[in-house]
Amino acid sequence: MGRRQEKRKIGMDAVRVLLLLSAVCVLPSGASAQTTPDKMVASVTNGARATPDLITYSDLVWQLALEPDTPFSERPGTVQLNRALRLVEDQLLILQEARKLPSADTTDANAARDAEVIKKRNELAQAFGSGTRLEERMTRVGLTSEQLDLILRDRVMVEQYLDFRFRAFAVITDREVEDRYNQKYGRLRNSGQIVPTLEQVRAQINRDLTEEKIETEIDKFIDELREAPGTEIVVLNPV
């Protein structure tokens, strides 16, 4: 999976930030569970708050455990953990920006977010095949239902912020649609295959181009956040 696809997990399916300061994490090993001390892995701040947000080892394990397409491991390897760390850092930077909005913590915003959390939880269970399978994976990494709701709540906040910031401004021109149509279907002309007309696929091409443009803008935005003067990401314990 490429870096752009990884970043899309921020908001578009499975994404996630959790800011826990817990002292221990229950990580089952083999047939019996054992309590393993959690550790602080990194701190992230954009300079807007006096106290940086902390990323724990549990955050990284839970990030990976909640990715349906990622092979499950109770003790992921260094490559997986570093990929998760990068994702969680990016998610935190966006979440910190989202908190700046005046509407981020209003009664209406919180109510709408609560409703979206329920929707996201159902979608996640469906992605795993069933709620039972999701709960089994959660249990194996010591993730409680309450903690999952916090994770999903942050995901929703990130998604809403990205939609607010980028979706309304992702305008696709007729020329871009026509160019993509010719690129995709032009070679099929006179091939004996049935080629849809531009009007038949215009809406789908427009959706595809919109998502691609949003992905590009999110990539640029995250890079800008990482390079911003107030941003400080400190690795406390390498994974």
Fold blueprint:
Blueprint: H1 3-8, E1 24-29, E2 32-37, E3 40-45, E4 53-56, H2 57-65, H3 78-98, H4 107-127, H5 131-140, H6 145-166, H7 174-185, H8 198-227, E5 232-235
Helix pairs in contact: 2-3, 3-6, 4-5, 4-6, 7-8
In brief:
Helices cover 55% and strands 11% of the residues. It is built from eight helices and five strands. The protein starts with a helix and ends with a strand.
Fold and architecture overview:
It is a single chain. The protein is mainly alpha-helical and 239 residues long. It is built from 8 helices and 5 strands; from the N terminus they run H-E-E-E-E-H-H-H-H-H-H-H-E. The strands form 2 sheets. A 3-stranded antiparallel beta sheet has the order 4-3-5. It has a two-stranded antiparallel ribbon with strand order 1-2. Strand 1 (24-29) and strand 2 form a beta hairpin. The two termini are 20 Å apart. The relative contact order is 0.17.
The major pleated sheet works out as:
3 strands, antiparallel
Q: What does the average pLDDT come to? A: 85
The proportion of strand residues reads: 5-15%
pLDDT < 50 stretches: 1-36
Order of helical and strand elements = HEEEEHHHHHHHE
Put simply, the count of helices is: 8
Largest sheet, order of strands side by side?
4-3-5
Helix content: 40-55%
**What structural class is derived from the secondary structure elements?**
mainly alpha
